[in-house]
Design goal:
Helix content: 55-70%
Number of helices: 8
Structural class: mainly alpha
Distance between the termini: 53 Å
Order of helices and strands: HHHHHHHH
Radius of gyration: 17 Å
Length: 217
């Protein structure tokens, strides 16, 4: 990897050793696009669309758009601003040490979105997704203070569990994407295999617990 492959300050370059930021081989390009399509915002948006299409409840699209604007839009704008200021490597936030600010902003944004959904009596699956995502984010944030866990696989696994509950067997293809996303993250040097497995376990654990609790309430 050459110096030009880094999209950040020189001082951070050693911490990115082995990370592929500019794909060159066919395998790296495939991994890159799987990683992009399997990113947390994309998976979250897909879950909202599938839920809205499946349930066809009154104002569910309006609630979904509100959630996207707050829980996804605000964090993405913040990260973009920090990248432009040169404080973060790229939109993927490669360095664990740079994730604290974005995580705190995301947690606040999701908390606001979840509260609005709850108070506004939004459809239960959307409220469930919001609160499960909030618990998941808090857990990932605490882990990230000491270790770099995969947010990609955690989100993909959690969303898969939720969609299996909401849309049934039609969500099986979504679950199959989890190992593909894990492979892409390892292939690009963004995570180790252990970090992707830990993320997957966390996502399944949090969302499965949330689904089980929702069936008992």
């Amino acid at each position: 990897m050459t110096r030009e492959d880094y999209i950040t300050l020189p001082a951070t370059a050693p911490a990115l050793a082995g990370t592929i930021l500019k794909p060159t081989t066919r395998g790296e390009h495939i991994a890159y696009w799987i990683s992009q399509l399997g990113s947390p915002p994309v998976m979250g948006l897909l879950a909202l669309v599938l839920t809205a299409v499946t349930l066809c409840l009154p104002r569910i699209w309006l609630w979904s758009l509100m959630y996207v604007a707050l829980a996804m839009g605000i964090p993405l704008l913040y990260i973009f601003w920090r990248v432009r200021k040169g404080k973060i490597t790229d939109m993927d936030i490669q360095l664990r040490e740079q994730r604290t600010g974005p995580f705190l902003v995301t947690i606040l944004a999701v908390t606001l979105a979840a509260a609005i959904l709850r108070v506004g009596h939004a459809p239960d699956p959307l409220v469930l997704m919001a609160y499960a995502s909030l618990v998941q984010l808090c857990a990932i944030f605490l882990i990230t203070l000491r270790w770099k866990i995969s947010v990609h696989t955690s989100t993909a696994a959690g969303i898969s569990v939720l969609m299996l509950r909401v849309v049934g067997a039609a969500a099986v293809p979504l679950a199959i994407t989890v190992p593909l996303i894990a492979w892409s993250r390892v292939k690009l040097g963004r995570h180790t295999l252990g970090q992707t497995i830990a993320g997957t376990a966390l996502g399944i654990g949090v969302f499965l617990t949330a689904v089980l609790i929702s069936t008992l309430i």
